[in-house]
């Protein structure tokens, strides 16, 4: 009986010590993780910058096959997180503006003013702008602009 009691007490002591030691080790490990053992990924919001092409005025056909001409006035803004892209944009703005005017002149007022086509038109102007910036100033950080936003669109007969 004494032998069983000694073995039982020994097992209880081993369990308590190993449990306490494991808990201590586990808690120390957590502190180390929180102190820099594993770094958390922190999402830092980058500021948005905008480059603007304003007051683009283009004469375009009213509808396909029509000889009537209407005027479109357009302002578009391009968003980026790289302020250098805005600077580069400013240096070559006349080239970008000319290419966007050519794009608009190939369309009709009906297609430009159709709300269903607004996203496509924005995407086309964004592609023109990114391509022009990349090629003209050797921009090598991916696409300089990530969005194009039509902020003014007026039709005049």
Provide structural commentary.
With 157 residues, the chain is α+β, with helices and mostly antiparallel strands. The chain folds into two domains: 1-40; 49-156, Band 7 domain (Tetrahydropterin Synthase, Chain A), CATH 3.30.479.30. Helix content is 53%, strand content 22%. It has five helices and three strands, in the order αββααααβ. The protein has a three-stranded antiparallel β-sheet. Helix 3 (93-105) runs antiparallel to helix 5 (118-137). The radius of gyration is 33 Å and the shape is elongated. 16% of the residues are buried. Mean pLDDT is 82; it is low at 29-33.
The string of secondary-structure elements, in order, is HEEHHHHE
Write out the CATH superfamily name of the largest domain.
Band 7 domain
What is the approximate shape? Answer: elongated
Q: Write the CATH architecture name of the largest domain.
A: 2-Layer Sandwich
Distance between the termini: 109 Å
Mean pLDDT, to the nearest integer, reads 82
- Unreliable spans: 29-33
Can you give the helix content as a percent range? 40-55%
Number of helices: 5
The largest sheet has its strands arranged as 1-2-3
Radius of gyration: 33 Å
CATH level 3 topology of the largest domain: Tetrahydropterin Synthase, Chain A
| Beta-strand share of residues | 15-25%
How many structural units, i.e. domains? 2
Helix- and strand-based class?
A: alpha+beta
* Major sheet details: 3 strands, antiparallel
CATH class of the largest domain: Alpha Beta
Q: What is the count of β-strands?
A: 3
């Amino acid at each position: 009986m004494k032998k069983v009691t000694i073995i039982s007490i020994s097992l209880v002591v081993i369990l308590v010590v190993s449990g306490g030691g494991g808990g201590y080790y586990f808690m120390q490990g957590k502190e180390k993780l929180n102190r820099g053992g594993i770094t958390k990924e922190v999402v830092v919001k980058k500021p948005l910058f905008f480059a603007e092409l304003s007051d683009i005025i283009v004469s375009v056909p009213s509808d396909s096959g029509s000889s009537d001409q209407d005027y479109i006035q357009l302002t578009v803004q391009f968003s980026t997180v790289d302020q250098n892209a805005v600077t580069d944009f400013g240096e070559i703005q006349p080239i970008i503006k000319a290419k966007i005017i050519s794009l608009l002149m190939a369309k009709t007022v009906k297609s430009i003013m159709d709300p269903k086509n607004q996203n496509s038109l924005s995407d086309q102007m964004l592609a023109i702008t990114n391509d022009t910036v990349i090629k003209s100033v050797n921009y090598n950080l991916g696409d300089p602009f990530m969005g194009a936003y039509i902020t003014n669109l007026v039709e005049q007969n």
